């Protein structure tokens, strides 16, 4: 069902491969690249977060700038991220005790090291989804909705999120599950995910979609973190809206409405940026600013001895 989309080379030896599915849509929504089964339902995981944030704006959430980017984030747990989560909660008269996301440690390497050195443990506020959860709670307060059961799939907030996802993706939700943070998880096709990101990135001024796009592209370090590839991706492509997701998912929209969505079948994150850059090249995007993401080094004794590279399925024909 999936195809080989990335190769792992150790020296001149092909050591392993990553299978996956990829869709790249042009500004008119026509496929330029379709590999594997992009029409098959997948869980976008955290790549859904910008669309969930849009649902919250449509229902009265009053955030912009870095805090709106944080509501769309899988943050690294750096100090500014945690302070931002507290600001969102305080604006709604809430505290970190109201968060119902899974207790966790920071996911950023440097943030985790500093966290452990300070003798700190797991807590919901450090979980990478805490910005989204804080914004969900603030949206509930704004609407007078109960906060105790905001993760229930039948809660008005979650119903609004389904409606917004179906609106942007142009297709019905095809699966419902529970995400790693405890929130409901809604599945759509990769094609629908790409379509949604293209609509976000190309939205007109004054729209809620434009607010999301501007917040993320102007504050990419709040969407990921100082050392994260999703941050580098948006910094390298001004105006782009990108979001990584667990189990090998990645989505990106460009200001002209073109977009890419992909999933690495084995759930690995290392091939995601490599395949994303290759797909962007197929769209005719100048990927020179993304040179550091175009391949991922394979290490031997701590030194590069090879690389993860895109396969022929996602590389333009010579």
From TrEMBL:
Pfam families documented for this protein: Asparaginase_II (PF06089)
InterPro entries xref list: Asparaginase_II
Protein name (record): Asparaginase
């Amino acid at each position: 069902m999936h195809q080989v989309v990335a190769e792992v080379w150790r020296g001149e030896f092909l050591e392993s491969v990553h299978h996956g599915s990829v869709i790249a849509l042009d500004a008119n929504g026509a496929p330029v690249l379709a590999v594997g089964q992009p029409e098959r339902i997948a869980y976008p995981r955290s790549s859904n977060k910008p669309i969930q944030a849009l649902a919250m704006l449509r229902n009265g959430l009053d955030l912009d700038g870095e805090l709106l980017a944080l509501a769309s984030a899988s943050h690294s747990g750096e100090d500014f991220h945690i302070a931002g989560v507290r600001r969102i909660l305080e604006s709604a008269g809430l505290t970190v005790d109201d968060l119902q996301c899974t207790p966790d440690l920071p996911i950023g390497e440097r943030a985790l090291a500093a966290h452990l050195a300070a003798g700190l443990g797991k807590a919901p506020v450090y979980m990478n989804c805490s910005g989204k959860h804080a914004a969900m709670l603030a949206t509930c307060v704004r609407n007078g909705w109960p906060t105790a059961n905001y993760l229930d799939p039948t809660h008005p907030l979650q119903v609004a999120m389904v409606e917004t996802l179906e609106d942007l993706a142009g297709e019905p939700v095809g699966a419902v599950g529970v995400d790693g943070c405890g929130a409901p998880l809604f599945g759509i096709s990769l094609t629908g995910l790409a379509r949604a990101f293209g609509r976000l990135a190309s939205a007109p001024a004054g729209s809620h979609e434009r607010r999301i796009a501007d917040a993320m592209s102007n504050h990419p370090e709040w969407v990921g973190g100082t050392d994260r590839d999703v941050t580098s991706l948006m910094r390298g492509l001004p105006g782009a809206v990108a979001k990584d997701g667990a189990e090998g998912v990645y989505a990106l929209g460009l200001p002209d409405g073109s977009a890419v969505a992909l999933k690495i079948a084995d759930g690995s994150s290392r091939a995601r940026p490599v395949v994303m850059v290759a797909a962007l090249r197929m769209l005719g995007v100048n990927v020179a600013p993304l040179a550091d993401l175009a391949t991922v080094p394979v290490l031997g004794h701590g030194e590069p001895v090879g690389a993860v590279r895109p396969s022929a399925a996602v590389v333009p024909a010579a």
